[in-house]
Design a protein that fits this description.
Belongs to the pectinacetylesterase family. Notum subfamily. The chain is of the alpha/beta class and about 300 residues long. It has helices at about 5-15, 45-55, 65-70, 80, 100-105, 115-130, 160-170, 185-195, 215-235, 265-270, 275-285, 290, 295-305, and strands at about 25, 90-95, 95-100, 135-140, 140-145, 155, 160, 240. The strands form three sheets. A four-stranded parallel beta sheet has the order 1-2-4-8, with helices on one face. Strands 3-5 form a two-stranded parallel sheet. Strands 6-7 form a two-stranded antiparallel sheet.
Length: about 300
């Protein structure tokens, strides 16, 4: 995120490569400068570490952001503070309950009600920090990073997958040299479904080209642009999980017990929140026996319907 505008400036102003479009995707780098859950006597608090680190690293932050925090340039390392100063398009992916954020906040693996309360507040704070972000995908899961995971394409919010949201964002910023995701088969499939034309790229293979006069080519380009505009208007690239429960998304990576390493049952997860399960059953309109024997997917459906 910090390098986005400097790279764009270097390419456009330094090398005169104005035909190159620079955009960024932030994967799990949207941290908050909030008070930690507990203070570790053997290490610096996250904010103090960043304050000292920027001097030791000789860190360089974008001038636009530095101008907003002249006496505290280290604050530009936090996404929600740097984002308003960016001029290049940015797509933000962020788990609402990021494990790296929890580690930095010394909250550790959540097993007590106090830890869950702090983590829940963290999710609320993250959700609020996206109020001015135009392109964001934020599932209500406990994890860190997504693009390096083999199942990143399966993450969804409201039945919209991350690749679909990325494609939608791409279409909202037309690229003069064609689609950025041109070589990605899934992205092409998504684009075809969105545009409903069977083909996103306007140029046919050489073996299939037919001679056409300039007016026909111009007409086809206009029609293609119109289809892309309609597809872009009907899709979404601003997706923030409405459910405030950690792990309430069906596509969340599985959570494991920090002591046993085994996958946590969802009922066990709810109990670790410190919740009174009888109250949960009453709120859901079911008896405690039904709740304890309820299928994971069925319980998630009930909870998300009431989110």
């Amino acid at each position: 995120m910090l390098n986005l505008d400097p790279i764009a400036g270097l390419l456009h102003m330094g090398y005169g490569l104005t035909h190159i479009t620079v955009r960024g995707v932030s994967d799990s780098g949207w941290f908050l400068d909030r008070a930690p859950y507990s203070q570790d006597g053997h290490s610096l608090a996250p904010l103090d570490a960043v304050k000292k680190g920027i001097r030791l690293w000789q860190g360089q932050v974008p001038l636009e952001c530095q101008a907003c925090y002249p006496s505290e340039p280290w604050r530009c390392y936090f996404g929600y503070r740097a984002y308003p100063t960016l001029s290049s398009p940015l797509f933000v992916f962020q788990w609402l309950f990021d494990e790296a954020q929890m580690t930095a906040d010394n909250v550790g693996a959540p097993v007590t009600k106090q830890q869950w309360d702090y983590i829940h507040q963290m999710g609320d704070s993250l959700r609020s920090s996206f109020h001015n972000v135009s392109a964001v995908f934020a599932p209500s899961c406990i994890s860190h990073s997504v693009l390096t995971k083999k199942d990143w394409q399966s993450i969804k919010i409201d039945e919209i997958s991350l690749p679909q949201a990325l494609r939608c964002w791409e279409m909202s910023h037309p690229h003069q040299n064609g689609t950025l995701l041109r070589d990605a088969p899934l992205a092409l499939k998504v684009a075809r479904n969105m545009v409903r034309s069977g083909r996103v790229a306007t140029e046919a293979p050489p073996s299939r080209r037919r001679k056409a006069n300039g007016s026909n080519r111009g007409k086809k380009k206009k029609e293609t642009r119109a289809r892309l505009r309609r597809a872009s208007a009907s899709c979404s690239h601003h997706l923030i999980e409405r459910c405030s429960w950690p792990q309430c998304n069906h596509s969340c990576p599985r959570l494991t017990n920090p002591f046993t390493g085994q996958e946590m049952d969802f009922i066990e997860l709810l109990k670790s929140f410190g919740l009174d399960m009888m109250s949960v059953a009453n709120a859901l309109g079911i008896d405690i026996h039904t709740l304890n024997n309820m299928d994971h997917e069925e319980l998630l459906n009930l909870l998300t319907q009431r989110a």
